[in-house]
Design goal:
Elements lengths: L4 H16 L11 E5 L5 E6 L8 H9 L7 E6 L11 H7 L4 E6 L9 H7 L3 E3 L4 H5 L4 H9 L3 E9 L17 H12 L3 E5 H7 L24 E5 L18 E4 L4 H10 L4 E4 L3 H9 L5 E7 L24 E9 L2 E8 L2 H6 L1
Parallel strand pairs: 3-4, 4-5, 6-10, 6-11, 7-8, 7-10, 8-9
Antiparallel strand pairs: 1-2, 1-3, 11-13, 12-13
Length: 354
């Protein structure tokens, strides 16, 4: 697997382009593509458009025009080989006269796979696996997970004091974390397809669950952004009042008549959701952990102690230390005075061997 310096740089650019459209492409993957001409100069680039729009390769080819002939396409995902709402990217690359394709991750979707073979059969030089880990753990991660498991990737986010309390004994919870952490949460929301809470959170906090501009003013003064994730409320007992802020027209909302995580996730997957941000309270978080439906944990810890009040995680069906969910920490970051930790639960089969 040999690539030129220009191709390596183009792949890093393609990875960045994919990040820009996170949360905006489902049910399609967030892909970035770059076209290099015969001299290795960048002549076109693109990211996946929202569902129904052109794929990354098509946008990059359109930007490159005639300069793509004889050149190289660098893509974060294997070019698709099927006709859905748009035509096969493989045929577009062949029609443009591209002679080399470099990509990061094989397409696991059986309906779209086979692009590399089609290109090779047509005489195109194909190199796969370039920056595979970076691509698979980046913008493509939720989509790849959803294809393989048939449900959305779930990120559980919570903000707590250093002793793990998400609210004080009197249930006050606003401003536990800093403005920097709150701004980071809005960036996180912007990167997902849906934000999910339970009816209890709606009754207690009346959250808006929208993405807002990031500055130091109170959230009520922030301006909404153009992209808003789907707001999801699990409300088995029909407790959400009609005047709840989550039901306004600032963003689309769906209320699901269930408390079962797997049923809710299946319903969301059927709607094209591939990445869910779980922002509910301790009880809902415990239910998702017990159902083994949390795939990533993003925790914001404030340098404060309460000693009482609800903990971040409620009953998760864990009765002994041997059954604890073990996490692998991916990153630890300072945000103002807070600490942000991103971690992923180890697979069950791996935990059983330890």
């Amino acid at each position: 697997m040999t690539v030129s310096d220009a191709e390596a740089a183009a792949m890093h650019r393609a990875l960045a382009l994919a990040e820009v459209v996170r949360g905006r492409t489902s049910p399609n993957p967030a892909v970035g593509a770059v076209i290099l001409d015969t001299a290795g100069t960048l002549v076109g680039e693109g990211s996946t458009a929202p569902a129904g729009g052109p794929h990354a390769e098509i946008r990059a080819l359109a930007a490159a025009g005639a300069a793509a002939r004889g050149g190289t396409a660098v893509v974060t995902l294997e070019p698709c080989n099927h006709s859905g709402r748009t035509g096969p990217c493989t045929e577009a690359l062949l029609a443009a006269g591209v002679e080399r394709v470099v990509y990061a991750v094989d397409d696991p979707n059986p309906l779209a796979a086979g692009g590399a073979d089609r290109l090779r059969e047509a005489g195109v030089d194909v190199v796969s696996g370039v920056e595979r880990h970076a691509a698979a753990s980046g913008a493509l991660r939720p989509w790849l997970f959803a294809v393989r498991h048939g449900r959305p990737f779930v990120t559980w986010k919570f903000a707590a004091t250093l002793d793990g309390r998400v609210a004080a004994a009197d249930l006050t919870s606003r401003w536990i974390t800093s403005a920097a952490s709150r701004a980071d949460v809005h960036a996180l929301r912007r990167s997902v397809d849906a934000v999910l809470v339970g009816s209890g959170t709606v009754l207690v906090d009346d959250p808006h669950l929208t993405v807002r501009t990031a500055h130091d003013a109170a959230p009520e003064e922030h301006l909404p952004l153009d992209h808003q994730p789907l707001r999801v409320v699990l409300d088995r007992r029909h407790r959400v009042p009609p005047d709840a802020r989550v039901l306004d027209d600032a963003a689309p909302t769906v209320v699901l008549d269930t408390a079962a995580p797997r049923f809710a996730l299946k319903a969301l997957h059927d709607r094209g959701v591939r990445h869910v941000l779980l922002e509910g309270g301790p009880t809902l978080a415990g239910a998702f952990i017990e159902a083994q439906c949390v795939d990533e944990v993003v925790a914001y810890y404030a340098p404060a102690l309460l000693g009482a009040g609800p903990a971040a995680l409620g009953d998760a069906g864990i009765g002994t230390l041997a059954d604890a969910v073990t996490l692998d920490i991916e990153s630890v970051t300072r945000l103002g005075g807070d600490v942000k930790i991103v971690a992923r639960p180890r697979p069950i089969e791996q935990r059983e061997k330890e």
